[in-house]
UniProtKB/TrEMBL annotation:
One annotated GO molecular function: pyridoxal phosphate binding
InterPro entries associated with the record: Aminotransferase_I/II_large, PyrdxlP-dep_Trfase, PyrdxlP-dep_Trfase_major, PyrdxlP-dep_Trfase_small
UniProt lineage: Eukaryota, Fungi, Dikarya, Ascomycota, Pezizomycotina
Coiled coil region boundaries: none
Name this protein carries in UniProt: Unnamed protein product
Length: 122
């Protein structure tokens, strides 16, 4: 897989081929996730069930339930021209992080993008 039919920038294509290829399959595929929380210390079964909902390994691009609900909301309330699938959505830690990730991967150095709100990236 390379530039995904020209949709990604040069560096975005490198991310897909070089970076994603090194991520362990159990991180990218929620079906392969282990049902454990590594507290990196002595195992304590008491909080395991309580902490399960806090485990970040619900999916590389976000919690599957959240992605399904977001896709359903977009399809129901925003009358999109084509159906949005959960696979079309990624959740980020804030708008600036999302913009940074998207623009890094679709723009080449020297490209410009106007963003109508004050978002900053490092």
């Amino acid at each position: 897989m390379t530039n995904v039919d020209g949709l990604l920038s040069t560096r975005g294509g490198l991310n897909v081929t070089q970076v994603l290829g090194r991520i362990p399959s159990h991180v990218l595929n929620p079906a392969l996730h282990r049902d454990e929380i590594d507290l990196s210390m002595a195992e304590n079964q008491t909080p395991a069930d309580c902490l399960q909902h806090l485990d970040w390994l619900k999916g590389f691009f976000g919690d599957a339930t959240l992605l399904d609900l977001l896709a359903s909301t977009v399809n129901t309330h925003f009358r999109s021209h084509s159906q949005v699938a959960a696979d079309n959505i990624a959740v980020t830690a804030g708008a600036a992080a999302g913009l940074d990730a998207i623009l890094y991967n679709i723009c080449n150095p020297g490209d410009g993008v106007l963003v109508p709100c004050p978002y900053w990236s490092e």
